[in-house]
Design brief:
This protein is an alpha+beta fold and 731 residues long. It folds into six domains: 4-185, Orthogonal Bundle (Hypothetical protein af1432); 196-337, 2-Layer Sandwich (Beta Polymerase, domain 2); 389-464, Ubiquitin-like (UB roll) (Roll); 474-541, no CATH class; 570-648, no CATH class; 654-728, 2-Layer Sandwich (Alpha-Beta Plaits), CATH 3.30.70.260. The chain is built from 27 helices and 19 strands. It has a five-stranded mixed sheet. Strand 13 and strand 14 (618-623) form a beta hairpin. Helix 4 crosses helix 7, helix 8 crosses helix 17 (356-370) and helix 11 (176-190) crosses helix 12. The longest helix is centred in the middle third of the chain and has 34 residues, at 466-499. The model is unreliable at 341-345 and 550-578 (pLDDT under 50). Bound molecules: manganese (II) ion. The site of manganese (II) ion has 4 residues, from loops. Manganese (II) ion binds at residues 48, 72-73, 139.
Length: 731
Amino acid sequence: MMRQYELVDRVKAYNPNCDEALLDRAYIYAMKAHGTQKRASGAPYFSHPLEVAAILTDLRLDDATIVAAVLHDTVEDTESTVDDIDRLFGTEIASLVDGLTKIKKLDFVSKKATQGENFRKLLLAVAEDVRVLLVKLADRLHNMRTLHFVPPAKRVRIAEETLDIYAPLAGRMGMQDMREELEDLAFQNIKPDAYGTIRERLERLTSANSGLISEIESVLQARLAERGISAMVKGRRKQPYSVWKKMERKSVSFEQLSDVFGFRVIVDSLDDCYRALGIVHTAWPMVPGRYKDYISTPKQNDYRSIHTTVIGPGHQRAELQIRTRAMDRVAEFGIAAHALYKDGVDPDRRPLDDTAAYRWLRHTIDLLAENDNPEEFLEHTKLELFHDQVFCFTPKGLLIALPRGATPIDFAYAVHTKVGNTAVGCKVNGRIAPLLSELQNGDEVEIIRSEGQTPPSAWEALVVTGKARAAIRRATRAAVRRQYAGLGRQIVERAFERAGRAFSEEALKAALPRLARTSVEDVLAATGRGEMFSGDVVRAVYPDYLDEKKPAPKQAPAGKGWFGLKKGSHMKFRLPGDENPDAIPIRGLNGDLPVTLAPEGGAVPGDRIVGILNPGEGITIYPIQSSALAAYENEPDRWLDVRWDMEAIGVQRFPAKIQLKSINEPGTLAQITHVIAEHGGNIDNISMARRTPDFTDMTIDLAVWDLKHLNAIIAQLRGKSVVSKIERFIG
Ligand code: MN
């Protein structure tokens, strides 16, 4: 276990002005507090907070963070309280420990429902001081390093959580080394076999090529030195997890050294980075498509470096990362490399809130407020955590950073939710482009908007940013709700009419408490969805109203019952031609009502129709002669009187089915399809069953404009000699 003076020495090594006495007190306090507690490994518990503190000294963090690390488990696991810490170590340290205690109480991997909620709490605890996150990550890293002492069943859970949340968070905070180690330890526990195989192969490749690696290092270094650039070149083996990910992504095996080794070229100045790049590209052929300049456009976690791949010494592909010492430090320490100090040890560190990683964190925390569903939030944040960035511009030159794979729709929502909701088209670099194309670095994007637009719900699955997804989902929900409220209004108004009572929104508003609803729209939407009966709405406004029976469909003239319904059915309908002007007008399938057609032999415009209200799904339309209607006989509340609004039906086709018996002779099918095509019908499907040597039965799925169109096609087919029998099929 680390001694008291060893911890102090570690801090002193990078911070000569550290508060030794404070560190000593924390050491002794935590040691006493944890007393004889043991870890799963059997080691004294106190060794854990010390190791966490040691990880943070590698990141060269300030006294308060180191002390908070030493104390991080005292409040949750011992008798200590936050007040004790406050009294003994001051408010700054106490609030760090408090934040860590709040996170410790979360068990990420319980039910899925609470995983999102916990992630939210983690971010909220971190919101007050990003150092809480740094200690938490170090805590997780040490727990992962000692995971083999934990029972196997629990191990995979913890490893998955690490891979899902903590490793990407470390990466997003720019701490690459920590991210890689977390990923690797998680991988080792989740897929031990794959890990073992890759690791063994990596080791074999490394030892077989050790000469080559040092040759590449020294040739590169010498070539740069010749041109006056002092550079440190270091070969670095990739981790099993990153090799695995690459194999999965590109579904290839790894064979070449370049898949396994990367070289870092560390130079003195920004200028030297580009000069070194020039020299490397002149000396060796570059591999096209591999050059990336993260110096001019840094990654969202502040990472800056030039990447390129060349066919280098020994005709080996070599991946190079060229950067300055300062950039290298950010690449390694990330957000921890910035001004966490008040001690002024390192004057050229940037203020923390000036870093992109910190801004991302703030932005993500801000998004919490907009998102009321923690599971959705977690899902979106996870998506963003894993994506690389592309950088695009508005026509006015504003930089918009987006995850790789983002579309102009994501761009529009990143600019403003309103821009996204009203987007109908876009120009990329001055040319009209599809809203669903993938944006590239440097694209200038102009969004074409139209007010009164609702984003199609299908977009939700096609965008990659959480913000766009959440906004599309919200807009879709609102639109669906408006549809149901519109339907509900028609149902309610007609119910009032039937009852001979006046409908007014004011009266309904006054009756809201009786319906246990909070707004008129709420009542209308619930009625439209079929969750509330219109008769109950009438009664809420006029409590004296007794509906003699539940609102039943109108009676047909005496003696004229409808075929298609079971014998003795009490359902009666008006006859064709007997149009009811009160019926709810159906404006086709893309209109303002949530309408679907019955799947088997549905209705086409011109058919007499009945609507059945399906709670949560809207209206299903049946032709009045459909036998499927018998199933709803005992649910009069679900029947709606509907009619086609023929004038409002736009240009759209409706599915219909015909059944026919044809004579078996060459060319029969061709004749039938020819007749249908000639009359403008679309054939969606034909199924055939040969019943006898002479005749074939077929069912043809058509798409037609309306009943007249369908009847015309049937009449033409009936006139053909190869058709012996034909009729429309209604399920
Ligand atoms: Mn801990």
